[in-house]
Amino acid sequence: MQVATHIIEEDKFKYMESGKGETLVLLHGLFGGLSNFAPLIQHFEERLNVVVPILPIFELPRKEATIDNLLIYIKEFIEHKGYEKIHILGNSLGGHIGLLYALDKPEKIKSMILTGSSGLYESAFGSGFPRRGSYEYIKERTEQTFYDPKTATKELVDEVFEIVNNIDKAMRVITTAKSAIRHNLEHKLHEIKAPTLLIWGVHDQVTPFEVGKAFHKHIKHSEFVAFDKSGHAPMMEEPEKFNAALEAFLEKLG
């Protein structure tokens, strides 16, 4: 599904923004992008100001492609846009950045939504992540991200294949992933005060289901929703259920 809105470039920031009302900031994962959120954007842009900043994972100098610098980028972006109380939703690495932002700027957060978030434990491409690999290997590993392998379209597999076969991009991915693993938040999660919705795929092989339950245990004001036919990206695999769960959560917040 394509997103109809265009990418805005301002200063050093690239982002999509569509709609009006309260602001919902969507943070994508290491291999993610706008297309991951297409059904969500289309569902909510008539009632919310939906914003997707493009994380500069491949623009930062290689040694600076860390989760700390991505957090700084998001802080500067939100300051640049002048957003006040926001809803922040993150998938995978994006969830990790959302958590760090909520810990650093709690006064800016109205609610947080995490799905397949890193921050406790993650198993991306494992210790054998290749700088170069066969297409079939990359296809198989990309398919394992989802409950239904067909969700890994040829376009998506091609994108991942291009990244891991580009030495410069692959090294940035590895640098970012390693920095995220070092940034374990288990002893910080009790500080999260914002109402939090956790949506987890039962078949998540990257941040397994037990990880979602651990987030629920440590984040006091959290709700947990399990999706039976989802892996690491429920908003892509079960978009209608995902949107309904998010809508119900936001309605309860008023």
Task: Kindly summarize this structure in a few lines.
This protein has nine helices and eight strands.
Report on this model:
The protein has about 250 residues and is of the alpha/beta class. The protein has one domain: Alpha/Beta hydrolase fold, catalytic domain (Rossmann fold, 3-Layer(aba) Sandwich). It is built from 9 helices and 8 strands. An 8-stranded mixed sheet has the order 1-2-4-3-5-6-7-8, sandwiched between helices. α1 links the parallel β3 (about 25) and β4. α2 packs across α3 and α4 crosses α5. The protein is globular. It starts with 7 loop residues before the first strand and ends with a helix. The mean pLDDT is about 90.
Which spans have pLDDT < 50 for at least 5 consecutive residues?
Answer: none
Estimated share of beta-strand residues: 15-25%
Give the CATH topology: Rossmann fold
Q: Average the pLDDT over all residues and give the rounded result.
A: 92
Strand count, sense and closure of the main sheet? 8 strands, mixed
